[in-house]
């Protein structure tokens, strides 16, 4: 399915006070909005994903999956600064006629949520039955539920946090240092920073998986090997995969966007901000997650008024939220079975 594009004709004011002109938002929709508008599932995607959620979250989203276009109107928007149809550093700067590169304005999670609001209004969505996201997607969904607390009836946030941690920021800064070490990055050119991006992705992967993941999946069968290890080639392969589909400038900005996440900013603190959430909330943590430790999800559960908590046991660490779709389906099914008030949405359960 080809992404659609929403073009916003007014200046888009960012949290920083800067203004973005000619905002475009790439998005996908699946299914149809029902008569009373009660079947909307809004997906907020993670760092380097795109708006085609039926492609990257298979097993949870699909024709025969829990969230399906027969029962639901599914919306996923490509986020600001990402290169899959939304305004980003390789977009043309109207003031220069050239790509922005590192002159693109500063963007925050709050700005991403504000862009979602514009798209929702354009699509005629005035109620969201479920907003769901993991990692950066969870940060967006949470922020949105605070900005418009009565819009989102149910909130599902996975492997995410209330504010990005010093640990997470340190990981991102190390990746940005890799980008800066590539001499082709700073001049600004369409294919600039490829070597740095490859190294940055290799670093990031270590935070997405675990010691156990590597020890099993990349273990050598030959005790005599001294070079060309499986783990080495795997890191290189994963770096090349991202380079072939992404750009270094979007990666730079997205890492900074994640660092900006703090729901307490200008709201009298994090706990005060979380108390504003009106959505019935399911918080899912992954015990093996080293990037977003489960303590961060337990904190969300403790401070969001109508929150329930579930633990996902995954071999894959942080990436478990993208891989363990069968387990996620079971958790979400169980959550909605406990909804004594009943839900307007028809949730299709896989066999």
From TrEMBL:
The keyword Acyltransferase applies. The active site is at residues 135, 289, 318. It comes from the Bacteria. Its EC number is 2.3.1.31. Its main location: cytoplasm. Keywords: Acyltransferase, Amino-acid biosynthesis, Cytoplasm, Methionine biosynthesis, Transferase. SUPFAM superfamilies: alpha/beta-Hydrolases. GO terms for molecular function: homoserine O-acetyltransferase activity. It catalyses: L-homoserine + acetyl-CoA = O-acetyl-L-homoserine + CoA. Substrate binds at residues 201, 319. Coiled coil: none annotated. Pathway: Amino-acid biosynthesis; L-methionine biosynthesis via de novo pathway; O-acetyl-L-homoserine from L-homoserine: step 1/1. It is found in: Cytoplasm. Pfam families: Abhydrolase_1. Residues 40-322 form the AB hydrolase-1 domain. Transmembrane segments: none annotated. Belongs to the AB hydrolase superfamily. MetX family. NCBIfam families: homoserO_Ac_trn (TIGR01392). Transfers an acetyl group from acetyl-CoA to L-homoserine, forming acetyl-L-homoserine. HAMAP family: MetX_acyltransf. Homodimer. This is Homoserine O-acetyltransferase. It comes from Mucilaginibacter calamicampi.
């Amino acid at each position: 399915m080809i992404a659609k594009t929403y073009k916003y004709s007014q200046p888009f004011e960012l949290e920083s006070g800067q203004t973005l002109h000619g905002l475009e938002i790439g998005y996908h929709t699946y299914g149809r909005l029902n008569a009373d508008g009660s079947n909307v599932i809004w997906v907020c995607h993670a760092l380097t994903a795109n708006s085609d959620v039926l492609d990257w979250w298979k097993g949870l989203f699909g024709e025969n999956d829990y969230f399906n276009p027969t029962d639901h109107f599914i919306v996923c928007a490509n986020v600001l600064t990402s290169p899959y149809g939304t305004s980003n550093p390789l977009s043309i700067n109207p003031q220069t006629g050239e790509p922005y590169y590192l002159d693109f304005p500063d963007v925050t999670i709050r700005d991403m949520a504000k862009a979602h609001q514009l798209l929702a209004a354009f699509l005629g969505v005035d109620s969201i039955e479920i907003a769901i996201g993991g990692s950066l997607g969870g940060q967006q969904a949470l922020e949105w539920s605070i900005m418009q607390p009565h819009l989102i009836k149910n909130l599902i946030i996975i492997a995410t946090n209330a504010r990005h941690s010093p640990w997470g920021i340190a990981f991102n800064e190390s990746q940005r240092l890799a980008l800066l070490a590539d001499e082709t990055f700073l001049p600004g050119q369409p294919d600039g920073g490829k070597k740095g991006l490859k190294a940055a992705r290799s670093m990031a992967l270590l935070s997405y998986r675990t010691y156990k993941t590597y020890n099993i999946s990349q273990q050598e069968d030959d005790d005599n090997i001294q070079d060309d290890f499986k783990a080495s080639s795997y890191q290189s392969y994963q770096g090349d995969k991202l380079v072939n589909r992404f750009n270094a400038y979007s990666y730079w900005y997205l890492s900074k966007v994640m660092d900006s996440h703090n729901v307490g900013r200008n709201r009298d603190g994090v706990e005060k901000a979380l108390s504003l959430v009106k959505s019935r909330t399911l918080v899912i943590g992954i015990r093996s997650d080293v990037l977003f430790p489960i303590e961060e999800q337990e904190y969300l559960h403790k401070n969001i008024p109508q929150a329930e908590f579930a633990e996902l046991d995954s071999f894959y660490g942080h990436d478990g939220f993208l891989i363990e779709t069968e387990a996620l389906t079971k958790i979400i099914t169980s959550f909605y079975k406990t909804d004594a008030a009943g839900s307007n949405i028809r949730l299709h359960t896989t066999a």
